[in-house]
Structure formats: structure tokens, C-alpha cells
UniProtKB/TrEMBL annotation:
Designated name of the protein: Lysylphosphatidylglycerol synthase transmembrane domain-containing protein
Alphabetic keyword roster: Cell membrane, Membrane, Transmembrane, Transmembrane helix
Membrane topology according to the record: Multi-pass membrane protein
Localization annotation: Cell membrane
Native organism: Flavobacterium myungsuense
Transmembrane segments: 7-26, 46-65, 129-147, 163-182, 215-237, 289-316
Short name of one Pfam family: LPG_synthase_TM
InterPro entries recorded: L-PG_synthase/AglD
PANTHER family named in the record: UPF0104 MEMBRANE PROTEIN MJ1595
């Protein structure tokens, strides 16, 4: 019973949060602002969106090809088209149940490529660790580029005494968590240790791949495709076409976090993008329109590739 409730909550909560953010955002806008947002949609230069979609497609293909290296390291040779199909279906399913796409990818390879589920899933966990490290790198770069602005903002908004109190509180909280993790024998802590151990093992396995430089080349290309897609779509509307490198990097990181930690960014992506762009003197209406144009185009690509992959999966594997 608890598992069913937990499952439904994992599906409904991100969706409800997204719906809430959409309603919350548009209730604040006046009728004139709504018309202004519609104007941005109407007058947008969608040629940049098409370029971004091509790059996003190449990023998906690179992710599928990168997967081969991890699987080959474990002794499994898989076809590129099944990897590519599994990646597309995974992205599509992530629109419904968060992180279900990772499970579906492993299931597809088990059925059509005879890769054991645990091996396939372990390779996916390993690549997610790599992706999180790259995202953390972008976060650090964004903070470095915008350090003066962030510092000024923090000092203006948060009194020094409160800031010090928060730092001490965070440090104490971290120490308590660390001691609990190291010494506690509670069941949930032991399960957490097992998962952390699995993640560590998955990450270490990547370091021993024979074609590690090819693996890391594709990792770089995947994230280049994400960054390039975001950059080129900035030219969709004039208001976002002249952002500084620091502003671009900050907005890119915020958007990436919104997609990574929510139900593919439903509601949260345009909301957070508009808020961060407001910090760079971009009107909230323009930022909101930009966020929706970028997010909806990317989700349309996910939908099309995912549905086509569902269609072609049994056809291409007819003899298997």
C-alpha cells in the first residue's frame, strides 16, 4: 500500500507543482501582459529553434553512441539503433513518471540485446553520475563568472548576522547527517549505504573503459549540444539576444537544474528562467515567453522521437 502511495505521489507531486507554478505565474499577469506574451510567441524567429532541435537530436545520438562504450566494457555489444531508440523512449517516459526512463532503457536492452537488467541499469547510473559532475562544473563556472553580482545580491538581501547563522546551521546539519550515515545501524541508513556503494562502483567502472577518451569526448559533445541549443535559442526574441556570457551560463544552469530535478521542467522551467532573466533586466513577460518557447519545442522533439521509437522498436527487431 505504501509503495503504491509513494509511486503515485512521485507522479502527481511534480505535475501538481508544475500546474501550480503555471497558474501562479499567469494570475499575476495583467490582460495587457498576457497580450504581450502572445506577441512574443507570434513574432518569434523560430528558425533558431529549428537549429536548436537539430543540435538536440545530435546530442541524443551522441548519448546513445556513448552508451556503447560502457556496455562493451562489460562484454556486451549492442546496436546503435536500439541504444538510440531506448534513449528516446527513456526521455519520453520521464515526462510521465520521473526517472522511469532509466528503467525503461535497461528493460529494452534486456529484451532486444540480451543485456542483463542490472548491468544495463548500472551503466545508466554511471553515466548519470558523470552528467551530474558536468552539471556541477557548469554551476561552479556560473558562480565564478557572476561572483560579484551574487556577492552583492547576498549582502543586499541577507544581513551578515543571518548569513553567518545560516552557514553555521548548514555545517551543523551536515555534521549530524555525516555522523548518522557513518555510525547509524538503522535500516534506511543501511539501504542508503548500499545505493551509495553502487553509485561509487558504477562511477569507478567508467574510469576503466578501454575507449575512455571516446566516452569523455561524447560526454563533452552531449553537454556542448545542450549549451549550444540554449545559446542559439536566445535569438528567438530580441530581448534575450544580447545577454552576457555570465548571464547565459547562469540561465543555462538554472534551466538544466529545473529539467533534471523536476518532471522534465513542466511549469518550473519557464518560471525559473523568467525569474533569473529578470535579474538581468529582461522583462518577466519576455523571459516567460522565451522559457515556454524553448521548453515546449524541446518537449515536442522528445514526444516525436519517443513515439517514433515506440513504433520502430518492434519493426527493427523483428528477427530477434
Amino acid at each position: 500500500m505504501k509503495k503504491h502511495i509513494s509511486k503515485w505521489l512521485s507522479i502527481l507531486l511534480p505535475v501538481l507543482l508544475g500546474i501550480f507554478l503555471i497558474i501562479y505565474t499567469y494570475e499575476k499577469f495583467t490582460a495587457e501582459q498576457i497580450l504581450e506574451i502572445k506577441g512574443y510567441f507570434k513574432n518569434a524567429d523560430y528558425s533558431y529553434i529549428y537549429i536548436g532541435l537539430v543540435m538536440a537530436f545530435l546530442g541524443n545520438a551522441s548519448r546513445a553512441y556513448r552508451w556503447k562504450f560502457a556496455l562493451e566494457h562489460m562484454g556486451y555489444s549492442t546496436s546503435f539503433y536500439n541504444n538510440f531508440i531506448a534513449v528516446n523512449i527513456g526521455y519520453l517516459l520521464n515526462l510521465t513518471v520521473p526517472k522511469s526512463g532509466e528503467i525503461s532503457r535497461a528493460v529494452i536492452l534486456k529484451k532486444y540485446e540480451n543485456v542483463p537488467f542490472d548491468k544495463g541499469f548500472g551503466s545508466i547510473v554511471a553515466e548519470r553520475i558523470i552528467d551530474m559532475i558536468v552539471l556541477l562544473f557548469f554551476v561552479i563556472v556560473a558562480v565564478f563568472l557572476q561572483f560579484d553580482i551574487v556577492k552583492t545580491f547576498i549582502i543586499d538581501k541577507i544581513p551578515l548576522k543571518k548569513l553567518l547563522f545560516l552557514i553555521v546551521l548548514v555545517v551543523l546539519f551536515f555534521v549530524v547527517l555525516l555522523r548518522t550515515y557513518i555510525y547509524s545501524k538503522k535500516k534506511w541508513v543501511l539501504k542508503l549505504k548500499e545505493k551509495v556503494s553502487g553509485l561509487k562502483e558504477g562511477f569507478v567502472s567508467i574510469l576503466h573503459i578501454k575507449k575512455k577518451w571516446s566516452y569523455f569526448f561524447h560526454t563533452s559533445f552531449i553537454w556542448f549540444s545542450y549549451l549550444f541549443t540554449f545559446y542559439i535559442t536566445l535569438f528567438v526574441i530580441p530581448q534575450t539576444s544580447n545577454l552576457s556570457i555570465g548571464a547565459i551560463m547562469t540561465a543555462f544552469v538554472v534551466g538544466s537544474v529545473a529539467i533534471s530535478f523536476t518532471n522534465s521542467g513542466l511549469g518550473s522551467y519557464p518560471f525559473l528562467i523568467s525569474k533569473i532573466l529578470l535579474f538581468y533586466s529582461i522583462p518577466e513577460t519576455a523571459g516567460n515567453a522565451f522559457g515556454w518557447i524553448v521548453w515546449s519545442s524541446q518537449m515536442l522533439l522528445v514526444l516525436i522521437l519517443g513515439l517514433l521509437s515506440f513504433l520502430f522498436l518492434p519493426i527493427l527487431n523483428r528477427n530477434k
